[in-house]
Design brief:
Strand content: over 45%
Distance between the termini: 170 Å
Largest sheet: 7 strands, antiparallel
Structural class: mainly beta
């Protein structure tokens, strides 16, 4: 009986020891956050400390930051578990989430915030655009400024920035407050053209100037005129068209290089074009004189924007008639000498056209250019085999018809 009681007592003791051991191994180790602040300045050291009854644990701190994610191991300092945040994480602003992990279990969690460092030298990033606008007050360029601390973090909202702009004799300063990290201002053009200079200032730090060009607005209607050495249709001289000074509605001279198209309408409703680009608001274009009597109607256009008055140019014929002669049994035709308005020989290169008819039938059309006032045509017997031909000769707008010419046919 005594032996049985001894055995039962021994089993009870073993069960008690086993149950007590299980309770100890399952007990959760507690950690308490000692660091009370949850707000830090960028660039300074950041350290989180935890206390615990156990000094043999090896917890880790898991960080989630806008810069990335990382795991930090603990060190023992003054009997506490200390976690030093990496330097590159300390320099960037934002909310940082942390989780304390012991073994495979999360024991604590929280957040802290890193704010811009107002003690460092302010840096300024500026963005200006568009970099060209039109005068007149309807278009604007926007200046956007991003003031940052020494670690390139945008300053806190409501930081003061001064946006300055200079145009002609005027300098304007406008105080603005940052919102969502930026301060901005729309700068409208004035009625005059010129360069617009913009800069910013924040915490007594000034930026470099940035430039926007204010160009003249669209052209208004203008007038045209012409000049020429004479009014004869010699096919050789030049007529020059000139515009008045072209300006925008605000009196600004239009930009150099503005294209002006001169449309010329002939008596037969044919359209000719010549072009000029403005220099100091004035465009010039040239047109070769016609080679026959003609009247031109001329008008200038800045395409789709402005137009000029219409002018009429009349060109007189250089001659009323010309001479011609046949030789070599009528096989050679010499047209000329062709003489101009002062009885001088016409310039080389004047076009002469001869139409060859057999009866009423057009056999051939010949073209030659004058040399020393004459144009020569050869009528080969291999091609012209009929006994009789007549000719219609045209040059410089004058047409003459010959009598029928007879040919020997072998």
């Amino acid at each position: 009986m005594k032996k049985m009681l001894y055995i039962l007592g021994l089993l009870s003791a073993l069960l008690f020891l086993a149950f007590g051991t299980a309770l100890v191994s399952d007990e959760k180790v507690a950690f308490e956050l000692v660091t009370k602040t949850n707000a830090f300045q960028a660039g300074g050291p950041i350290q989180l400390e935890f206390s615990s009854q156990s000094k043999t644990e090896k917890p880790a701190l898991f960080l989630i930051h806008s810069y990335g994610k990382t795991l930090v191991d603990a060190t023992m300092e003054n009997g506490k578990y200390s976690f030093k945040i990496p330097v590159n994480y300390c320099q960037k602003t934002g909310v940082v989430s942390w989780f304390l992990i012991n073994g495979s279990k999360k024991t604590n969690s929280g957040t802290f915030e890193i704010a811009p460092n107002s003690q460092t030298k302010t840096q300024i990033e500026n963005y200006l655009g568009p970099r060209s606008i039109l005068a007149g007050g309807k278009e604007f360029t926007m200046m956007v400024t991003v003031p940052t601390d020494g670690f390139d973090n945008p300053l806190a909202d409501n930081s003061k920035a001064i946006i300055k702009h200079q145009f002609l004799n005027s300098i304007t300063e406008t105080p603005e407050s940052t919102k969502n990290f930026i301060a901005w201002k729309n700068i409208f053009s004035e009625s005059k053209s010129g360069k617009l200079l913009v800069s910013t200032e924040c915490n007594s730090i000034s930026s470099k100037e940035i430039e926007t060009e204010v160009y003249p607005n669209i052209a208004t209607n203008f007038s045209i005129n012409y000049s020429r050495n004479h009014d004869f249709a010699d096919g050789n001289q030049i007529t020059t068209f000139t515009t008045s000074m072209i300006k925008d509605p605000f009196g600004n001279i239009v930009s150099d290089g503005t294209l002006v198209t001169f449309i010329i309408t002939t008596q037969t409703k044919m359209l000719l074009k010549t072009f000029g680009t403005t220099i100091n608001g004035i465009a010039n274009a040239q047109l070769l004189h016609p080679d026959h009597a003609e009247t031109y109607n001329v008008k200038g256009y800045v395409t789709g924007i402005a137009e000029s008055n219409a002018i009429i140019l009349a060109y007189k014929p250089m001659m009323q008639s010309f001479g011609y002669s046949f030789s070599n049994k009528n096989r050679t035709l010499v047209v000329g000498p062709l003489k101009s308005f002062m009885n001088q020989l016409v310039p080389d290169g004047i076009r002469v056209t001869v139409k060859v008819f057999h009866g009423t039938k057009l056999v051939n059309t010949l073209h030659e250019e004058s040399s020393k006032g004459n144009a020569t045509f050869k009528l080969s017997s291999d091609f012209y085999k009929e006994k009789e031909y007549r000719f219609e000769i045209s040059t410089l707008g004058v047409t003459q018809t010959t009598e029928p010419k007879h040919y020997d046919i072998n």
